[in-house]
Write a structure and sequence with these properties.
Helix content of chain A: 25-40%
CATH topology of chain A: Rossmann fold
Number of strands of chain A: 11
Strand order of the largest sheet of chain A: 7-8-9-4-10-11
Low-confidence stretches of chain B: none
Distance between the termini of chain B: 37 Å
Number of helices of chain B: 11
Strand content of chain B: 15-25%
Strand content of chain A: 25-35%
Mean pLDDT of chain B: 92
Oligomer: heterodimer
Mean pLDDT of chain A: 91
CATH architecture of chain A: 3-Layer(aba) Sandwich
Largest sheet of chain B: 6 strands, mixed
Number of domains of chain B: 1
Strand order of the largest sheet of chain B: 6-7-8-3-9-10
């Protein structure tokens, strides 16, 4: 595959002047965004800022009444205007997705083992024994034991369900993981575990990640670089740590301020 | 403080769901007290028993063993004096404002509803409902003139949740229970919710608040005391400062780490 380069790195995603509108109403306008090989990049903004629409555009999953303009390249494939067969071969192979609510993104009538196996079955020509071996190995990587393979999603906790979601996204070793608010529905301890797990697995696989959130404290843990979205436009971008220390835009300041305010301010470190 | 001065007391509460092999102990010998005018935070992860405890404290579910008393009167079944007083004197704020507000009702009608019900019940007509609605909205930081005639769909998540809070405080209750009022809300808008609760504490110092959350970060500025629940048991309780700065239980330390940047 011939891929465009940026600063000597292969470009995994490149969006140029991406615009999305629904029923004549502009949702996203003129967004430029790129993710290099092996990068973990954040997309942050409050609800309604257009974050999810951008991720949907990258996955070719925009609602049917939406129109997109501009360009989104996944490697050397143009996603905007691509037909379903092209998109279907990208999803799973090139790009995997982890969604916000595992309870609704997992199939409730499919046991975990079958669910994680499905992308392998659809995209690769492997025999059953080989697939099952990979499924068990993948479950172990996300911290679930072999017995989980025979359980239904409803028998798992929210955190375990999200681990299954991550396993399903990573089983085909995609180049890019799009994680759209993967921790928002989870409690605070589980949130941290899931973020750390995603970061470790993505790095280990040498993949790239687009991490979408409204919470800077999650973003700081998950990404090295980020884009701040407000009202469908990128208002600021750069190194995540720099943005957190020295936000320029008023909206960025608001998001950073909120994250700081809601983070524990302790008088002393506890001795553990 | 003597038991009579406590607003709400739960003693030795256990709740077991299911029978035989499928038996699940959701709460195990949990005791909590809420004093008048205090803000108590109930903290725990998913499945820790927070919501079950809340339902029992509000008399909406019966404990398998243990007792609940409101202002000294036992809350024991719908006919009990404690239950009746509790329903009159308490109100709830739920996690998602968009499912707890009627989408077909304007803000003014939603906020006025508890008062309308009270008026029907008590058959008194001397309530100035419109004035109370305006006062409540102003207290949570929403300009009545701007918001009275809006529908939930025209509100942001933070605004909608503040309408739900205005509805909860419009009857001037002795107890407001907020079940994860910030979990479904954007981080930036969570601050507005916190400010609304801070305003309530300031202008209604007698009102007690139980704030349920999984996140120590959101309750640090608002709670006087924290009770940490884990697997249906109280693993730690104490003043906010103590729990945050000198956590004793291993689980609390995990919570502290999860809420730190």
């Amino acid at each position: 595959m011939r891929m465009p380069k940026w600063k000597g790195k292969f470009m995994i995603v490149e969006a140029k002047r991406l615009g999305i509108s629904i029923a004549g109403k502009s949702i996203v306008s003129s967004v430029d965004l790129h993710i290099g090989d092996g990068e973990r990049v954040g997309l942050i903004g409050s609800s309604g800022s257009g974050k999810s629409m951008i991720s949907k555009a990258m996955l070719g999953l925009l609602p049917t009444n939406a129109t997109a303009e501009g360009s989104v390249m996944l490697g050397d494939t143009q996603v905007i205007g691509a037909d379903e067969t092209v998109l279907a071969s990208l999803r799973g192979r090139y790009v995997g997705a982890v969604f916000q609510n595992p309870a609704s993104s997992l199939n409730p009538v499919l046991i975990v083992g079958k669910q994680v196996e499905l992308p392998l079955k659809l995209h690769y020509d492997l025999d059953k024994a080989d697939r099952q071996k990979r499924v068990i190995a993948m479950l172990e990587k996300v911290g679930l034991d072999e017995a989980t393979a025979n359980k239904y999603p409803s028998e798992l906790s929210g955190g375990q369900q999200q681990r299954v979601g991550i396993a399903t996204a990573l089983i085909t070793s995609p180049r890019l993981i799009i994680a759209d608010e993967p921790t928002t529905a989870l409690d605070s301890i589980t949130q941290r575990q899931i973020v750390d797990l995603l970061v470790t697995l993505v790095d280990k696989a040498g993949a790239s990640m687009l991490f979408i959130t409204h919470d800077f404290s999650v973003l700081a843990r998950a990404t090295t670089r980020c884009y701040v979205l407000d009202d469908g436009q990128v208002i600021e971008s750069g190194d995540t740590a720099d943005l957190l220390d020295n936000p320029q835009n008023a909206q960025t300041k608001k998001l950073v301020g909120a994250a700081r305010e809601l983070t524990l301010q302790r008088k002393q470190d506890c001795d553990d | 403080m003597t038991e009579q001065e406590m607003l709400l007391i739960g003693k030795g509460i256990s709740r077991v769901f299911g029978k035989g092999k499928n038996q699940q102990r959701a709460l195990d010998d949990v005791s909590v007290e809420v004093c008048s005018g205090e803000c108590l935070a109930l903290i725990g992860g998913s499945g820790s028993g927070k919501s079950t405890l809340t339902r029992i404290l509000l008399g909406l579910d019966q404990p398998t063993s243990g007792t609940v008393a409101f202002e000294g009167n036992p809350v024991d079944g719908r006919k009990s004096a404690g239950y009746q007083a509790l329903r009159r004197e308490s109100s709830l704020v739920f996690q998602s404002p968009f499912t707890s507000l009627d989408p077909r009702w304007m803000v003014t009608r939603s906020v006025a509803e508890p008062l309308n019900i009270q008026r029907k019940r008590s058959k008194t007509d001397n309530l100035d409902i419109a004035a109370k609605v305006r006062e409540s909205l102003a207290l949570v930081g929403l300009d009545p003139d701007e918001f009275l005639n809006r529908y939930p769909i025209d509100l942001s998540g933070g605004q909608a949740q503040r309408v739900a809070i205005a509805r909860a405080l419009v009857t001037d209750p002795k107890l407001i229970v907020a079940d994860e009022p910030m979990s479904a809300i954007d981080v930036a808008a969570r601050l507005q919710i916190l400010e609304a609760f801070a305003a309530i504490r300031k202008s209604r110092p007698e009102t007690s608040i139980i704030m349920i959350s999984h996140d120590l970060g959101v309750v640090q500025h608002i709670a006087d005391r924290i009770v940490v629940l884990h697997n249906g048991k109280v693993v730690e309780s104490g003043g906010t400062d103590d729990v945050l700065n000198r956590p004793k239980a291993a689980y609390t330390r995990e919570l502290v780490a999860a809420a730190s940047l």
